[in-house]
Specification:
The chain has 288 residues and is mostly helical. The protein has helices at residues 4-37, 43-50, 61-73, 83-114, 116-121, 123-129, 134-147, 154-177, 182-190, 195-230, 239-248, 252-283. Helix 4 (83-114) crosses helix 8.
Length: 288
């Protein structure tokens, strides 16, 4: 209870601010309609109307919750209106980019730790690459993929997701692989261990806490990259496509429901990474 109380307090504060903002933003339409009709409206009469508008500027939490429930449980999972269906499409792209980002990040980290020239030549460019806004880079990746004949929309989405997810893995793995101190390295040398044995017996196990910590960041970044990649591809499937459709057709409830569905998906992915981390720790003899 002591751990849950601060979380509940913050949650209640967010809900209170959200409701207050919804009343303030949606009241503009209520007073405008009342002025056109020539009937004055008091705040006591306006507040209930701000809570049940069909296309509110800022949907209140209960409207978003109802739309989210309808999208998750009120439709068949095969329906194009189901958030489960669109979430699975986004999930596939996220996992493709996540896997690609892990491979690229780990391989680059191993090369940077092993070769000084890679450290001096690649690491600065990897850092600089993260300064490029992904919303500007995504259309370029999509155009280049089309020029190369890659018509599958999942490919550019995976590349964009990998672009965002490889960097946390790279930085954390470099830090983890370099975490053993000189005394530990010298001890292995006295046992006659070569570079490969040192990597497998010391550097790699020492990097695991850094690796799994980076995965929690990388999987969330991969989801963001997939959603961003769905926006300029003209995709009609995926949570990003649902957000775009809601924005284009003036349906804020669809947009907000897809946004919260993406947040739920991100939470599930992070929890899954945490479970894998605990299982790997037990396998390696480390208590969670």
């Amino acid at each position: 209870m002591n751990r849950a109380l601060p979380v509940l307090t913050v949650l209640l504060g967010i809900l209170a601010i959200w409701y207050a903002a919804a009343v303030w933003m949606n009241a503009t339409w209520v007073f405008d309609q009342a002025e056109r009709a020539g009937t004055p409206v008091t705040w006591a009469e306006a507040i209930p109307q701000t809570m049940a508008q069909e296309r509110p500027l800022l949907p209140p939490p209960h409207q978003v919750g109802a739309e989210l429930w309808k999208g998750l449980f009120g439709q068949a999972v095969t329906s194009k209106r189901s958030l489960v269906y669109h979430g699975f499409v986004t999930f596939k792209g996220t996992m493709m980019g996540f896997g690609l980002g892990i491979v690229a990040g780990v391989l680059l980290a191993m090369a940077i730790v092993r070769f000084r020239v890679m450290d001096m030549g690649v690491m600065p460019w990897a850092i600089i690459s993260q300064t490029i806004p992904i919303v500007a880079l995504a259309p370029m990746i999509i155009t280049l993929s089309s020029q190369l004949g890659l018509t599958d929309r999942d490919v550019p989405k995976a590349i964009i997701a990998a672009y965002l997810s490889f960097f946390p893995v790279l930085v954390s793995m470099v830090k983890g692989l370099r975490s053993p101190d000189q005394m530990q390295l010298d001890l292995l040398k006295t046992y006659g261990a070569g570079e490969m044995a040192t990597f497998l017996k010391l550097r790699l196990p020492a990097s695991m806490p850094y690796f799994f910590a980076s995965l929690k960041v990388a999987v969330a970044a991969s989801l963001v990259g997939t959603i961003v990649g769905e926006l300029p591809t003209g995709a009609i499937e995926g949570l990003g496509a649902r957000m775009l459709i809601g924005s284009q057709f003036g349906e804020p409830l669809i947009m907000w429901a897809a946004l919260f569905a993406a947040a739920i998906l991100a939470g599930l992915l992070i929890v899954t990474v945490g479970v894998v981390e605990r299982l790997a720790g037990r396998r390696m003899g480390v208590r969670a």
